[in-house]
Design a protein that fits this description.
- The complex is a heterodimer of chains A (about 160) and B (about 800).
- Chain A has five helices and five strands.
- Chain A has about 160 residues and is an alpha+beta fold.
- Chain A folds into two domains: about 80 residues, Roll (Ubiquitin-like (UB roll)), CATH 3.10.20.30; about 70 residues, DNA polymerase, domain 1.
- A five-stranded mixed sheet of chain A has the order 2-1-5-3-4, sandwiched between helices.
- Chain A starts with a strand and ends in a 6-residue tail after the last helix.
- Chain B has about 800 residues and is α+β, with helices and mostly antiparallel strands.
- Chain B is about 30% helix and about 25% strand.
- A seven-stranded mixed sheet of chain B has the order 4-8-2-16-13-14-15, sandwiched between helices. In chain B, strands 10-20-19-18-11-34 form a six-stranded mixed sheet, with helices on both faces. Chain B has a five-stranded mixed sheet with strand order 1-33-32-31-23, with helices on both faces.
- In chain B, helix 9 links the parallel strand 19 and strand 20.
- In chain B, helix 6 crosses helix 7, helix 15 runs parallel beside helix 16 and helix 18 crosses helix 19.
- The longest helix of chain B is centred in the last third of the chain and has 28 residues.
- The radius of gyration of chain B is 27 Å and the shape is globular.
- The chains are: A alpha+beta (about 160), B alpha+beta (about 800).
- Chains A and B meet through helix 1, helix 2, helix 3, helix 4 and helix 5 of A and helix 1, helix 2 and helix 18 of B.
């Protein structure tokens, strides 16, 4: 007999109700039960950050959260960033700055960066951006394009004097 | 064969435009067709980016099939053991578990990688272990269940009775330790002495200076962010087992499956969806991939396996664990007179299919001289078996080590002779006027900019104040050092060069097919298989240029063995040179077909027709023009209007098989060492590189930066460790220290362009150079920072404790570098 729970949550504004086994991770639930496969699993032990999503606006490793813990929560994933084919400013900056190659870590970095950029004191200081982006691992880019992209968006979203 | 101008030209002095250096964004926005109708050299934004950024890429675990079973492998807990019995009864009783398969259930299949050399000992690699396990995490059984959780429950319940044996875990004890394979004396799988020069012993005995040194590098994991994985399904309509796999080499994987399972190749279809990085790990065939294909074919039911990170670190393929004992003779001016090397590679328990365990020692022994002139040379290369996972050709394949050896030798000779180490390099580098140069190992080097890149790197960092910054740091009590490395790397190994290895399957050539559809859009299929390198963009740039269309109108189809002709995949910095040139040649053929149609319709001479900006125009006849889409429409829908005997359709095949072309670079790095913690920090990094004609600067710079980052990781951070019993001690990303953004600094890049003489576009390979040059440059910089201690470090990674122990030594009285 499986230990299952009926939960409800919102993902990118879409309401979902589902039955989930208590041991099922939020990452597996998003990917395989709800079809949000943009959230990737790179290590399943909380280090690489490829599965970073926003859970009630906080960045979390979806591999370290159980699906049942998201009951009643608002989840944001990479699928919620673009407006149809129109990329968000952050997504466009990643492309412009070549902040992705294979693309596997990219959703995690985008969600991490979204959380960082939502902080009122986010600045375009490359060192603080590097420090923030050090939460996640990328094996392709050497991080330079990622850091540049986040700096670009920090500058455009928080023009000098506005913070 | 087109011979291009050989003089290196400076492409872009990549002066920093801000704290982060050159802005990719500016480059991308400027990307446009120039007046000559070429997309070559433009930073065209990547076609791959949109889906990756929206989260709609399709990686293998995103492929879902109704009713799929999920696999979990039961793996050996011992480095070496006898398998006495396997009891699956409890596992099959776990809810959700459908099958538990052992080797016997699959008729004991195995993979066999072959090298046709007497000095090579082949090792059969069972897909599932039979009576023996030869490394920890070797697969012994596979559990198939309704979901991955139940599969892991089942794997835990499989009871295997082992009798552990003493394991062999390092190069030094392997010759006298227990045999990894019964009857394998000395645990030596390959022992080759190559290029033995009669004069060498005399040269070494008589030389004014002989440098003797040993160098070593740790075992590494390639660590793509997406591990391996596959989903196999039986297609009853096509009579095929279809394997969706995260691989760099779909056709080679198909061949491996077909050979291991005794199937005709056409009954196996391999499809690589989006692949989340490879770095060489995915250019060999994994046992698990063949097991999953076999299971799906037998059960007639989809089966999925997605490797977790622990498996990736302990049960996939490693590489890079090598030891060099070297003697080098120099004259008093620092000229290298002769070089003898004894190279040992810890290759683990088996030969990976199809490259074999000889890939590292053969590469090292053949290419050690690198960018330097070595008049007399001998190398012994050995592959030593240990009770560790087998090795795959990790990015760079022995070149990071051989560059490290040569660059450290230059430093040591300069120190012993009290000469400028850069001057010693200049006296030994193959230089302008000497190309094409044939070295002691028989390699012929095409044109490069070896001295020019060193000169430009030195000038750049001097003018940028690196030396004064180093001296100021030192004055403040912070050990600081600057390191250089100069190297050339053979890329795009064609069949003639690969044949020298004498593999059972000789890779090298590749093909491409170009087809224009009736609306003027273009489909390119290729046997190469990009996995992050942006091939959809760069191939489109090449083909669009030849056909006079926009790159957005060109779509690349890759990674599917049913779509593309047999091709060797993506590894060894080969794809743009071999696959790209194949595509260009096919496109040229299609362009000729378009020109013939235009010439007929416009009643002009074919040779006067040009294809550009989406139209066919006529030289000397302004106003005479037809849209390319109109030509395509005519070819397909109005073929009756064309002259009798015209080809039908618009398509062509192209192929390329160059002998290998040498890229080169000079890396320069400024590091500091923390006197308190021993941590080394990379503060500044410059690459002056020459990969011939750059197709897309954005993509090339990304490859260089990513490569350098992996090279810095090898120099300072990463190490796969095993204890004496063969237990893995680097099983998580807490233990295996892949660098984060905090460990890496901005990397400045300057391009020189010496075109490849073997291809029309002139591009050389460049996927590995960053990884190849960085360890030597970083190690030289660390030694420069610690020069005052008298300690010379010749191993990687340099750990904080190495730095601390050297700093705690009393000031030395003897010089060392």
């Amino acid at each position: 007999m499986k230990d299952v729970h009926l939960i409800s949550l919102s993902v990118n504004g879409n309401e979902h109700e589902l039955v989930v086994e208590s041991r099922r991770t939020l990452a597996d639930m998003l990917r395989h039960d709800l079809g949000y496969t943009g959230t990737h699993l790179g290590c399943e032990h909380g280090i690489c950050g490829a599965c970073t999503i926003l859970l009630d606006d906080q960045p979390v490793r979806a591999c370290l959260v159980f699906g049942v813990q998201a009951d009643g929560c608002e989840v944001r994933t990479v699928e919620g960033l673009a407006d149809g084919d129109q990329l968000s400013d952050l997504q466009q900056a990643f492309s412009d700055r070549h902040g992705l190659q294979c693309g596997f870590c990219t959703p995690g970095f985008l969600m991490l960066a979204e959380a960082y950029l939502s902080e009122a004191d986010s600045s375009a200081d490359p060192e603080s951006v590097r420090e923030a982006m050090a939460s996640n691992l990328c094996r392709c880019t050497g991080y330079q394009g990622i850091v540049e992209a986040v700096c670009d968006v920090a500058r455009s979203r928080h023009p000098a004097g506005s913070t | 064969m087109t011979r291009f101008a050989v003089k290196a030209t400076l492409r872009a002095t990549n002066a920093p435009t801000g704290p982060l250096g050159r802005t990719g964004a500016r480059m991308a926005r400027e990307a446009k067709l120039d007046g000559h109708g070429t997309w070559i050299g433009a930073s065209v934004p990547r076609k791959e980016d949109g889906r990756m950024l929206r989260g709609s890429g399709r990686f293998v675990d995103d492929v879902e099939r109704y009713g799929a079973l999920h696999a979990a492998f039961v793996r050996s807990p011992y480095g070496s053991a006898t398998v006495n019995s396997i009891d699956v009864a409890a596992a099959t009783g776990i809810p959700g578990v459908h099958h538990v398969l052992t080797a016997a259930d699959l008729d004991n299949p195995y993979l066999l990688a072959v090298l046709e050399r007497d000095e090579f000992v082949p090792t059969t690699m069972p897909l599932l272990a039979e009576s023996e396990v030869r490394h920890a995490a070797e697969p012994v059984a596979v559990v198939l269940a309704e979901d991955p959780y139940a599969a892991e429950d089942g794997a835990e319940a499989v009871e295997i009775d082992f009798t552990p044996r003493q394991a062999v875990t390092d190069l030094d004890t392997a010759p006298t330790g227990p045999n990894v394979h019964s009857g394998l004396a000395d645990n030596c799988l390959v022992d080759l002495t190559m290029f033995d020069d009669d004069r060498l012993d005399g040269v070494l005995a008589d030389a004014p200076l002989t440098v003797e040194a040993e160098f070593s590098s740790a075992r590494l994991a390639a660590l793509p962010m997406e591990g391996r994985g596959c989903l196999a399904e039986w297609d009853d309509r096509d009579g095929q087992v279809v394997l969706h796999a995260s691989t760099q080499v779909p056709h080679q994987l198909r061949s491996g499956i077909a050979q291991a399972l005794g199937l005709p190749e056409s009954t196996v279809r391999v499809i690589a969806p989006d692949v989340g990085g490879g770095f060489g790990l995915k250019c060999v065939v994994g046992r698990e991939e063949v097991v999953i294909a076999a299971a799906a074919a037998r059960l007639r039911r989809p089966v999925k396996w997605v490797e977790d990170r622990q498996e990736n670190l302990t049960a996939s393929f490693h590489g890079h664990e090598q030891h060099y004992a070297v003697r080098a003779a120099f004259d008093t001016t620092g000229r290298l007179l002769g070089l003898a090397a004894d190279i040992r590679c810890d290759v683990g328990a088996y030969s990976a299919f199809p490259f074999t365990c000889a890939v590292e020692p053969l590469m090292a022994a053949t290419e050690l001289p690198g960018a330097y002139k070595v008049p007399a040379y001998r190398a012994r290369g050995r592959a030593i078996a240990t009770n560790k996972p087998p090795t795959a050709p990790y990015r760079g394949v022995s070149r990071p080590q051989i560059v490290l050896v040569m660059e450290r030798l230059m430093e040591k000779a300069a120190a012993a002779l009290d000469l400028d180490p850069l001057e010693v390099r200049r006296r030994n580098l193959i230089s302008e006027g000497e190309f094409p140069y044939t070295g002691a190992s028989g390699i012929t080097y095409d044109e490069g900019s070896y001295r020019e890149s060193l000169d430009l790197a030195e000038k750049t960092v001097t003018e940028a104040g690196w030396y004064s910054e180093r001296d100021e740091l030192r004055a403040a009590g912070i050990p600081a050092g600057i390191g250089f490395s100069c190297f050339s790397e053979r890329t795009a190994y064609g069949t003639p060069i690969m044949a020298q290895r004498r593999m059972g399957m000789t890779p090298g050539y590749d093909t491409a097919h170009v087809r224009m559809d009736p609306t003027g859009e273009v489909i390119v299929t290729t046997g190469t298989c990009g996995h992050g390198q942006g091939h959809e963009t760069t191939f489109a740039q090449i083909v669009a240029t030849r056909l006079g269309v926009h790159p957005d109108q060109v779509r690349l189809r890759q990674g599917d063995t049913d779509l593309a002709a047999y091709g060797w995949g993506t590894f060894g910095s080969r794809s743009i040179v071999i696959g790209g040139t194949s595509a260009r040649r096919a496109a040229d053929d299609v362009a000729a077909q378009l020109r013939r149609i235009a010439a007929h319709l416009l009643e002009v001479d074919e040779s006067d027709v040009r294809l550009m900006h989406g139209a066919a125009t006529v030289r000397g006849v302004p106003g005479a023009s037809l849209e390319i889409a109109e030509l395509a429409r005519t070819a397909y829908f109005r073929a009756h209007t064309l002259p009798e005997g015209s080809e039908h359709g618009l398509e062509a095949r192209g192929s390329a098989d160059p002998p290998g072309t040498f890229s080169n670079a000079c890396h320069t790095v400024l590091v500091t060492a923390d006197p308190g913690t021993g941590a080394v920090r990379v503060r500044r990094y410059l690459v002056v590189e020459d990969c011939g004609v750059v197709i897309n600067p954005l993509v090339v710079d990304g490859q260089v930066r990513g490569g350098v980052t992996q090279g810095i990781a090898a120099a300072l951070y990463e190490r796969i460790r095993y204890d004496g019993d063969g237990q893995p001690n680097s099983a998580t990303l807490m233990d295996y220290l892949a660098p984060t953004a905090s460990e890496i600094c901005p990397i400045q890049i300057t391009h020189l362009e010496t075109p490849c003489p073997y291809t029309e576009d002139g591009a050389k390979g460049m996927g590995e150079g960053g990884t190849i040059g960085a360890p030597a440059a970083v190690l030289n910089a660390v030694n420069d920072a610690l020069a005052h201690t008298g300690v010379a470090m010749d191993h990687i990674p340099v750990r904080p404790e190495d730095v601390l122990s050297s700093l705690s030594r009393p000031l030395a009285t003897v010089g060392g570098t």
